[in-house]
Queue: 3 jobs
Job 1
Amino acid sequence: MATLLTAFASVLLLAVLVSSLANRTILSTAALFLVAGFVLGDGALGVLSVRPGDELVGTLAELALFAVLFTDGMRVGWADLRTAWRLPGRALGWGLPLTLAVTAAGAHFLLGLGWVESLLVGAILAPTDPVFASALVGNEKVPPRLRQLLNVESGVNDGLALPFVMVFLAVAAGSDDLHLGALGLELGLGVLIGVAVPWLAIKLEQTRLFSASTQYEPLNALAIGLLVLALGKATHGNLFLAAFSAGITVATFGARQRESFEHFGELIAELFKLAALLLFGALITPSLLGSVGWQGWAFAVLALVLARPLAIWLSFLGSGLSVREQAAVAWFGPKGFASVVYGLIVLASGIAAGQQVFQIVAVTIVLSILLHSSTDIVVARWFDDEREMPAWYGLARRLRRGPENRAENRAEN
């Protein structure tokens, strides 16, 4: 534990020191933690020796995904979904299942997996990670509808993909109708806890008897999240659907709680995510990267450059998005942290194809993190008009205005 804490603190300090540079270049903090984990793991230096079945790996991955889904849900209250549903609805209603289907077809025909296992791979790799699209979402020169589309889609699709992962995993494990019924109860109980606990807590805080001070306001949503986690554990409800539902409920009924917790919550989720990425990198060894063969690497490439782009192209036919906007949405379908945890869940499940599914998922995620995290700045600059125009363009444009606009020309200079 001391070794892991030292490694994480050291890499975190390095990430903080280079974060400003990372915001301006292709350097990525997520890739930094992934590569650091690989270098420190058994595949290289052997400083961090972890196994997929280690309790620490499972616990950290569980807590990290809970925090990520809770904060993701908080980005998309029902009011946000109602006012901005047209484009994200296409991406989620059509793009997500189409991405799942195309990815599953590739896994079946290229890797020889059975259809259930292939659909499981498709469900794991269907969600996108908002971290790698941050350069677009945070760039004011990117059209607002595109930024909103990427933000809402990436915030919702982790939670939407989860039921598919759980159902396909249950079928792959040979579950009968009784077990599938128990799975449905687990998922439903998770949603119930995720809605009821935040709603009751917010309503209590809005009564005359209770009022949170400014100092403690950010802890309100944290307390709600911890209570949802504890009740989910105690009742065996699905923690991840509970987290996602809780986030949406807070965003819907507690605008003040959402606003006060937003920055604090994102930092907590980011810490958990980076720690889990460090451990995930330590699980990646040269033998794992080589065990998938050329078919595995070919599948990883096709999953990134064919499945998502094809699904987005079909989903946005007649949407009014420009070619440039569609290209940006199509490329920024990175496989991120949710896919990491879903892959670990499959590995721990004991299904016959669990090891192969995890290896394929791991290779695809590694390739995605390296490619997408190094191209977000480049794609964001497509929308920077000043970068697109040569230096002489501004002068020529002012000369064409003629003498009647000299005052405006001087003002521009």
Job 2
Amino acid sequence: MSSALVWFRRDLRLADNPALQAALDAGHDVIPVYIHAPSEEGEWAPGAASNAWLHRSLAALDSDLRARGSHLVMRQGGSLAMLQSLLAETGAAAVFWNRRYEPAIQSRDTLLKRTLRGQGIQADSCNGSLLFEPWQLATQQGQPYKVFTPFWRNALTRWKVQPARDAPPGLSAPRVEGARLDTLGLAPKVRWDAGFWQHWQPGEAGAREALEVFIDGALAGYRQQRDLMDRVGTSLLSPHLHFGEIAPWRIVHALEAGRSAAADADIDAYLRELGWREFAHHLLHHFPATAGENLNPRFDRFAWATPSAASLQAWQRGRTGVPIVDAGLRELWHTGYMHNRVRMIVASYLCKHMRVHWREGARWFWDTLVDADLANNTMGWQWVAGTGADAAPYFRVFNPVTQSEKFDPQARYISRWVPELEALPLKARFAPWQHPHLLAEHAPDYPRVPLVDLAAGRDAALAAYRRTGAG
């Protein structure tokens, strides 16, 4: 029987895996392959938190394969060279993979496919991660969208979700071995990630469980509660989606199965969030330079401040003196994750109050988030900074005090991640610098004043934006 390599990348699952299914449908014995080649990611090689998750996700995938009589063949080195070596070792006639959309990876994959086909090897790629590929939706003028609402309206008119498919019950055993997982250097030598795994279970089983927990719990009331920080009001599926441990269409099918008059608004609200994920990939594909450059060139003239190393580190480590900002950054440091509403507040404080370039924040999130996705990360930071597609108006500056009072009204989120403030009266926990005697008595080690005064920072930011012509 003929064999084919199935090259796993950000599709670390056996169910709903179009590349795997295509190889099986073609009648091939499957040789599952993972190639570790971070240098091919360009300037966006995975960060430390992503690598820590990847280590565990690969272990879970290998375990799932072994339960079906197979195993994951892991190699390290140039992708083309490793694939060619494996083709020679195994006599495989084809290579199948699921597409990725990051600019450096798209360029590599195009060259790789052309080279393999030129050598007489069948090389086919599939859509394993999106409901709509970036080139499938365009304006009436044939241009890419830059605004979400018409993008999503068009998507809904063409809504046809592919069916969910279960994992194959058994697979043939590859007659080739690979590197041991621990030789890839993904797991940190110093276990700074230990706190992550109290919150997360990487792998396909963990993704399925997270979906079930969401449907049974936070989905009811999702539309109203997704912004509340003091509870689990979201799906927590973003890292599983990023690593391809679950397909977006499986999520859609699971949600649609629970449709009812009572659930419609919450389901539609969640599907809209999946739509933002689609929009982010649409933008990155059509505007690949935006991972490091403003989509709106008008903001190239913006007068960003040059932060000191000390002030930037204070922001990174949650020592700004603004409790909701510090809480979010400490949550990130300890769990590899940050609540979405808090991400916007944290980003606004950096870009607008501190007037630090959004690239600094994007880089920090890239290294510390377990769901660090280039498309989502880029779109989110440019949205807050006002420099990107569908961006927040330049004059929108999140007030972290009013935001925390509205979305964390009992300061539970703040108290959890900034526990030194828990002894303060509730009102004082939102803006402790306004209560200096209480702060000195109960939290003497917490910053006495914010890194940047909220009113002064806002005024300086608005003045700088107006000088660009934004106003």
Job 3
Amino acid sequence: MKGFIQTIKNIWSIKELREKLMITFFFLVIYRFGSYVPLPGIDVNEVTRLLAAQADSQQGLLGLLNSFTGGSFNRASILALGIMPYISASIVVQLMGLAVPYLQKLQKDGDSGRKKITQITRWLTIAICLVQAPAYLTLLQTQLLPYSGGFASAYLIDPGTFWFIVPSTIILVTGTVFTMWMGEKITDRGIGNGISILIMVGILADLPRALINAFEIDQTGGIMFLLEIIGLLVVILLCVMLTQAVRKVPVQYVRRAQVGSSSYMRSMTDSVRSYIPLKVNASGVMPIIFAQAIMFLPATLIGFVSDPNSSLSLFFQKVADPFSWQHSVIFAFLIIIFTFFYTAITIPVNQMADDLKRNGGIIPGIKPGKDTADFLDDVLSKITLPGSLFLVVIAVLPAVAHLFGVDQGLAMFYGGTSLLIMVAVILDTIQQINTYLLNHHYDGLMTTGRSKNVA
């Protein structure tokens, strides 16, 4: 504890780091405050009460969106859409970069190209918001209607009028743009990746309430609650291992040097050993996000089935339930597929092989060029399979935890996208803080001053 307190003092003693932390904290406070500001014409207390009566609003993709926005989605806040439209736009631009020559050219143009891609992502974010905002307002009306007996109890004005839809759409779009701006400012002037930190803070906002609920319903004198906390810490440790694990591929760089006097020059070769760190989970949380987007389809298809008691409708209901075994099996299958797909399109083994050849680097025992690309692809395929299986375990753990009696709110923190995002963002932020500490000759937050990779 004494060492930890000294580390905090060291962090506070570095002026630049202190200013960055204060700027980050300032924007996070504004973000959390904005998540409680309701849209004009809505009684936020009544909306919260009505939506709390619906178990479905906390499940599936809607529950994920609400978690990412720190509850803003269910509170009908001006930041209800949060940063998710920007995330969607970034994914679309990234995937289009594989097929659109113009974007491929921008990716190779360095700083100027990145600025243009960022600008394209911003405009695409606004376009997505203009679609999602009216859809969100319509969804809100649909969710409230069966539970309120009409709109009078939740809305101060008629939700179907022009004077509600248009201003609310403009406010929701502005809220997302403002959130995007805060995220970029945190990245530029604060500490860590701003967009990721905003998502993490939104997720963590639900953790205290989940812990309190789990403690209140515990009827074993706190023993079950203690076991749940220990289990959560073990899962977090597994997520850290999954995020940091790499396969080190040895690389040898050969360089030539001239030695001796001008009359007796001779050439000598010197080799420098290095390695290529191939991540076991190179795709991050993207496979889970893609899989969850598809798993939301059964809930949509239920509305198109004429007989709600038919076997097809019951099957869709089971698949849409995130705590059913049917959902877990299909979810796991999709995660494995998307892990291989996303890894294949984001890790350019051919380009890596060309860069090695151009810089005089070789993998011992492997010929440069195509053989190197094939070798890297083979290694990547071998480590992606266990990585995807590990990702499946993390993704379905909430359902397993709920099966063993863990409260639904706390069970959602036992894995899935939320936990992986929190772990990845915290590790990245710690690494940046460590850099500042080590540059000023202080010990880092970790024992060695840097995060270790698990081979």
